[in-house]
Amino acid sequence: MTSHIAFQGELGAYGHQACVETRPDHAPLPCATFEDTIEAVRKGDADLGMIAIENSTYGRVADVHSLLPESGLHIVDEAFVRVHVNLLGVQGATVKDVTHAHGHVVILPQCAGFLREHSIRGVVSSDNARAAREVASRGDPTQGALASELAAGIYGLKILARHIEDHARNTTRFVIMARDPDLRRRGRGPMVTAFVFRVRNIPAALYKAMGGFATNGVNMTKLESYMVGGNFTATQFYAEVEGHPDDRSVQLALEELDYFTDHVRLMGVFPAAPRRHERAT
User: Fold this and answer.
1) Structure confidence at residue 66 as a pLDDT band (50, 70, 90)
2) What is the pLDDT of residues 129-184, one digit of tens each?
3) Which of 4, 33, 148, 238 is the most exposed place for a label (fewest CB within 10 A)?
C-alpha cells in the first residue's frame, strides 16, 4: 500500500520539492491550503504532512504557528530545503519579453532585486506552481512565473533565468507532521523538543518561565509569539529547545516552565536536521 505525504500547493510547488527530497518513498498529495494539508493527515488520506513554517529571507510563514497547536498532529521531523527561484516563461520567450512575473506573496520579496533590475512587475498568486500552470496555459510571452525547476518540467515551461533569489542561501524550513508522536525516537545527533505555552498573568512571568532553561543549560533555539483568537491580551508562544523530554535538564526546565504558565502542550520531538546548523555558518 502506497504511503502519501500532503503538502500545500500544486504539483511543482516548493512543498512538492521538499517531499521529493526528503520523503521520496511517499506519494505527494497536493492540497489547496495549509488547513487542507493538516486535515488530509487527520482524516488518514495522507500519512504525513509537509508544512512550511519559515524562510531565511522572508521570515515566518503567516498563520502556520497558530494552526499547528490546534491541528491535533505532532511534529516528527524537520527539513531544510534550498529554495532556488527561477523565472519561467513560455517556449520561445526571453527575459526581455517578460513584463509581469507571478508568484506567491512569500516568493516575491525573495527576488525583488532581479525584478527591479529587469523592470518586471511582481503579481501575487496563491501558489507558485499554480502561477506556472497558468502561465503555461495562457501562452503569453509577457507573463512569467517565479517557481522551481520541478514546476518548469511539469508544465512545459522554459527557464528564462535561474537562481534569481536575492540571497545565496535562501532556505525554507518545513516540519513534517503525523497523527501519532514517537517520543522514544532518538536521532544520531541532537534532538529538538517543540512545545507551545501561555504564561500566567503575573509580573515578569515570561522572564521567569524562560529562566529555567538558562539555569539548566538548555539551549532555546526558537521562541515565537502570536495572538490567540485575535485577542491582544492573550499571547501564546511556540518554542523549540535542544534536547529530549527524557533528558534530566529538559525535564527540570519544563517543570519550572509549568509553574509560570497556565497552558503547555508538547508539539513534537524530532532529530535536528544537519542543515539546521549549516545555515547558521
Assistant:
1) confident
2) 999 999 999 999 999 999 999 999 999 999 999 999 998 788 899 999 999 987 77
3) 33
Grid cell in block for residue 236: 501564546
What grid cell was written down for 45?
A: 488520506
Domain 4-82+171-178: top CATH class: alpha beta
- What's the CATH number for 86-161? 3.40.190.10
Whole-angstrom distance, CA of residue 62 vs CA of residue 89: 28
Active site residues per annotation = 172, 174
Q: How many CB atoms within 10 Å of residue 204?
A: 10
Domain with CATH 3.40.190.10 in the chain: 4-82+171-178, 86-161
Q: What per-residue confidence (pLDDT) applies to 204?
A: 82
pTM: 0.87
CA-wise closest residue to 30 among 8, 49, 61: 8
Q: Which class for 208: exposed (0-12), middle (13-18), buried (19 or more C-beta within 10 A)? A: middle
The pLDDT of residue 187 is 62
151: which residues sit within 8 A by CB, 6+ positions away?
Answer: 11, 12, 13, 88, 128, 129, 132, 133, 145, 157
Whether the pLDDT of residue 92 is over 70: the answer is yes
CATH class for domain 191-278? Answer: alpha beta
CA distances from 148 to 82, 112, 178 (A): 11, 16, 26
Question: Is the distance from CB of 88 to CB of 147 less than 8 angstroms?
Answer: yes
Enumerate the CATH 3.30.70.260 domain ranges in the chain, comma separated.
Answer: 191-278
